[in-house]
Design a protein that fits this description.
The structure holds two protein chains of two kinds. Chain A is α+β, with helices and mostly antiparallel strands. Chain A contains 15 helices and 15 strands. Chain A folds into three domains: about 290 residues, no CATH class; about 90 residues, no CATH class; about 55 residues, Arc Repressor Mutant, subunit A (Orthogonal Bundle). In chain A, helix 1 packs across helix 4, helix 6 packs across helix 8 and helix 7 packs across helix 9. The model of chain B has no long low-confidence stretch (mean pLDDT about 95). Chain B has an eleven-stranded mixed beta sheet with strand order 1-3-2-4-6-5-10-11-9-7-8, sandwiched between helices. In chain B, strand 2, helix 4 and strand 3 form a beta-alpha-beta unit. Classes of the chains: A alpha+beta, B alpha/beta. Chains A and B meet through loops of A and helix 9 and helix 10 of B.
């Protein structure tokens, strides 16, 4: 979508990511998704009278890892209380960071070459989760509301970008790249469908070069697709509004995925005064140099660098390969590709197999790098067909072992050239019409004969070898 | 009998914890209707705890340093399964599923918790008159207040219902009632005693501390409850200090500052008592100098911004959603409002409004921000004073116990009864009140000793000198 005339959108994103700590931010309760409601709770995360928070050091380490990955400055910081009433927030205040966040400044470079500045990435606690029963699905007008406090006190890092984003596609790219960075730091699993990464988008429009327009904040976008659609809708809505003589009100808006539109949640005049003040139950946070060094040392390369490394192995890449590499990096499975390259194997085949067969597996722990490399080598040398190689990998993923024995056990040893030649000759004799058309130049019929050979040999033939046999008889 | 003697007797098998518990419960039954000291008496729990102590002794196991000593707990301390109200309707019916750290430590030392004592609602008050469950009466003169907010705990000890009690001190809530009831009360250094399980009024000021009839018992109780707790991030890192062992250290060679701002405005008989206390310390070998710390005059106004600001946030959780009172209404916002309107008393509402205002956008800098600056000045002023002297001396209260209703219609007059105690809380330092002399109507006077952080051993040793002089020993 493009905005009409010389309109330009200005977008900044606030991304909340849950940290993958074993326990919650201020208590010892387990931090897991999907447990039975209100089973991972204690006096602290229920905010019972008299309870006190104690900061989880792992959460601090993960927040610093995120900051370092985003080139931010790690600074001495403090915790504040953000005061407002909501039934899923047990203390009726949220412990967050305010004027002194743990990470200040920074940037993220996107694959399209653009750079988005990061204003801050601070620590805070998550709220519980409300379910509103009734027609509205929202708290007002609900027949009954249920609250699950398992999520209450789960550590979050909120990453606030500068207003640097100029298109919905760039916003999506930023969110996707940030997600990759978060996964790479080990701080987040990046699962947007489970709410472990949630996005608020600040959107305004202006004529290029003019001062910023009035912005609207779209809350709680839970997928990259929603993010892109919501921003597009909102920017267009604002342009239409202004061109019709209207004025954009600063407000918080809700994105309805089914309707495909944003609608007003609350206007600025109704905005809460959060009455931030220093959290007196926590002490100041100033990770020393040794702690920071430990975090820095534990940090591996970020996705951009890792993507570049795989691209370098391939030389040039096409779009399909670019997508496949993204999948490989996203899943952190490039060690199989590098092992293949180190063994002098076919990197393109390796990337394709990782992006398809390995990406589809729940667990890759049984597949050794050596077994993967050997499978790719067998496919490249023609000892296994592509189909056979795929099923060998499925077996290796399920139960480990080595590809040579699996191929043998499955009868995947390729036919010798002689027996393949016999099969091809027999089939040519049985299908004289098709053979005649092939010999007259209709190459499409090669697929017909390959299919017959595969059926006859139960998939043990190599397609390329079949074509060679056919051409030899043409 | 004092607590130290009781515990020693029980540990040696010469006294029965069960008998001590029975005696305590008998004393409570005799006067609780009249004085309204306890909101909840846990007779069964107390008898069971006492039986466990006696059983341990029989088996040759040491039940601990407070073996069999009955103790009263201010009703803002969480105890598993025991109704805990903060003297507020809003918490009616709530029973905590966990113990405050101090309660675990008391149980570990063999103490016998007999019940929960009355307080000003959410510890906001200086007379116990703001309790939703009626005021506590001063056992020494039931027409007068016991002080507050820990009035119930002070009265329990003054009425000999229990030899020990725990209170909490946010602006004087242990020292002031101790003074008005003629007993010893200690406000420890901020962080010395874990706040885990103390229902917060103002988190940066609250501190749990002991009440006792004498200095040695207070030292013993403080030793038991003090020391690092990983559940409280503001807890000091070290183990409990040695206090009992230093009770006889005396004051020889100590420099004591008699602070003008801590006696100005006090009744003449109280000023005279403080001056007599100074003379006793001089007799004990101390040097007493008169000092002025003008910053202390700013304490009251800073306190009445900082404490309500924190309280407005701490008390937000009483919203009717999860526990305590709920007044149903058409939607969640209305339910929340109806619950808080019905559940909180006038003083609590006043402070929530004050605190909310002080933190509001556009007012923060002028009120809360300014108060924080005053607080820093106060800390610096104390630090300078402690450069010159070891301890400070003053009055605990401007007057002896006052009569009911005499200050309830004038919040400022009530707030002024804490004028001498508030600065210590703002500075996070230590202070205690020890009975010294009598004033109007033969009512007790409390003298206040103040020291820097972690000076409890010195303060208790100095208090011991005053106590010895009072007893003519």
């Amino acid at each position: 979508m493009t905005l009409p005339d010389d309109w330009e959108m200005v977008v900044g994103l606030e991304v909340h990511t849950e940290l993958r700590t074993a326990t919650k931010m201020f208590c010892g309760c387990a931090n897991v998704f999907g447990a039975e409601a209100n089973t991972n709770v204690c006096p602290v995360c229920l905010g019972l009278p008299g309870s006190l928070p104690v900061l989880n050091e792992r959460a601090v380490s993960m927040a610093m890892a995120i900051g370092m990955a985003l080139h931010a400055t790690i600074a001495p910081s403090t915790f504040h209380r953000k005061n407002y009433f909501y039934p899923d927030m047990p203390k009726d205040f949220q412990i967050s960071q305010y004027d002194l966040p743990i990470n200040a400044g920074g940037y993220l470079d996107l694959p399209d070459g653009s750079r988005v500045s990061i204003e801050r990435a601070h620590l805070e606690e998550d709220t519980g989760k409300s379910t509103h029963l009734g027609a509205s699905g929202r708290i007002h007008g609900a027949d009954r509301s249920l609250v699950d406090y398992n999520r209450s006190g789960v550590p979050l890092v909120e990453i606030v970008s500068g207003p640097d984003i100029r298109s919905s596609a760039q916003a999506r790219l930023y969110a996707s790249e940030l997600r990759g960075v978060l996964i790479a730091t080990g701080a987040s699993d990046g699962r947007m469908e489970e709410g472990s990464m949630r996005i608020d988008a600040n959107v305004s429009v202006r004529h290029a070069g003019a001062p910023f327009g009035t912005r609207c904040e779209i809350k709680n976008l839970n997928s990259l697709r929603s993010l892109q659609r919501a921003i597009e809708f909102e920017a267009e809505r604002q342009v239409v509004l202004i061109e019709g003589g209207g004025v954009v009100r600063q407000e918080t808006r809700h994105w309805d995925e089914t309707v495909g539109a944003t609608s007003t949640m609350r206007v600025k005049e109704e905005a809460e005064d959060y009455r931030y003040f220093r959290e007196p139950d926590l002490v100041d946070l100033a990770p020393d140099a040794a702690w920071q060094r430990r975090v820095a040392d534990s940090l591996g390369p970020m996705p951009a660098e890792r993507r570049a490394a795989v691209v370098a192995l391939l030389g040039g890449v096409n779009d399909a390969q670019r997508d496949a590499i993204d999948v490989v990096i996203d899943l952190g499975l490039e060690r199989y590709v590098h092992a293949t390259a180190a063994a002098g194997g076919d990197v393109a085949v390796a990337v394709a197999r990782v992006a398809n067969e390995l990406a589809g597996a729940d667990d890759v722990s049984k597949l050794t790098e050596a077994a993967f490399v050997a499978t790719v080598a067998m496919e490249a040398s023609g000892r296994l067909s592509a189909t056979q190689a795929k099923s060998v990998l499925v077996d290796l993923l399920a139960s480990g072992g080595d590809p040579v024995s699996i191929a043998a056990a499955r009868g995947f040893e390729q036919l010798s050239a002689d027996s393949l030649g016999d099969v091809v000759s027999t089939l040519i004799d049985a299908h004289p019409d098709e053979w005649g058309r092939f010999r007259d130049g209709d190459d499409k019929l090669a697929q017909f004969f390959i299919g017959l050979v595969m059926r006859e040999t139960k998939g043990r033939a190599n397609g390329k070898a079949v074509i060679a046999e056919l051409n030899a008889r043409r | 009998m004092n607590a130290t003697t009781m515990a020693e007797g029980v540990r040696r098998g010469e006294l029965s914890a069960t008998a001590l518990a029975e005696e305590s419960l008998r004393a409570i039954r005799a006067r609780n209707d009249e004085l309204n000291v306890f909101l909840h008496v846990d007779e069964d729990g107390a008898m069971a705890a006492a039986a466990r102590v006696d059983d341990a002794v029989k088996r040759g196991v040491d039940p601990g340093r407070l073996a069999g000593v009955p103790i009263a707990l201010k009703d803002n301390l969480c105890q598993i399964g025991i109704p805990t109200t903060c003297s507020s309707r809003i918490l009616e019916g709530w029973r905590p599923p966990y113990n405050a750290t101090v309660i675990d430590r008391l149980i570990g030392a063999g103490a016998v918790a007999v019940g929960k004592t009355n307080l000003d609602e959410f510890a906001m008050g200086s007379s116990t008159e703001t309790s939703a469950f009626g005021p506590t009466r001063n056992p020494l003169d039931p027409t007068r207040v016991p002080g507050g907010s820990s009035g119930g705990s002070a009265a329990a000890v003054a009425a000999a219902m229990t030899p020990l009690a725990l209170g909490s001190d946010t602006g004087g809530s242990i020292r002031q009632p101790a003074a008005l009831c003629g007993i010893v009360g200690v406000k420890p250094t901020y962080g010395l005693v874990s706040r885990y399980g103390l229902i917060a009024f103002a988190s940066s000021l609250d501190q749990i501390g002991p009440f006792a009839t004498n200095v040695a018992d207070a030292a013993l109780l403080l030793e038991v409850i003090a020391g690092h707790d990983p559940m409280d991030s503001t807890s000091l890192p070290e183990p409990a200090p040695s206090l009992v062992a230093h009770l006889r250290d005396g004051v020889a060679g100590k420099r004591v500052g008699l602070v003008r701002e801590l006696i100005d405005g006090a009744d003449a008989e109280i000023v005279a008592a403080v001056e007599r206390a100074a003379a006793v310390l001089v007799d004990g070998g101390a040097t007493v100098v008169e000092l002025s710390i003008p910053e202390l005059r700013l304490g009251l106004s800073a306190y009445y911004l900082i404490a309500p600001a924190e309280a407005s946030s701490n008390l937000a959780r009483y919203d009717g959603v999860r526990y305590g009172l709920r007044v149903d209404a058409q939607d969640v916002t209305a339910m929340n409002e109806a619950t808080r309107t019905a559940g909180f008393g006038a003083e609590v509402k006043r402070r929530i409004m004050l605190g909310t205002y002080a933190l509001s956008a556009g007012y923060y800098d002028a009120y809360y921000g300014q108060a924080l600056k005053v607080r820093t000045q106060m800390r610096d002023a104390f630090k300078r004073a402690y450069h010159e002297v070891d301890l400070l001396l003053g009055a605990t209260t401007p007057s002896v116990a006052f009569t009911f209703g005499s200050k309830t219609n004038d919040p400022m007059a009530m707030y002024l009864s804490d004028v001498f105690t508030i600065p210590t809380n703002l500075a996070g330092e230590a202070a205690l009140s020890v009975p010294f002399g009598r004033g109007e109507a033969d009512l007790p006077i409390g003298v206040q000793l103040l020291g820097p952080g972690r000076s409890e051993a010195q303060l208790l040793a100095a208090a011991q000198v005053l106590e010895d002089a009072e007893r003519g020993s």
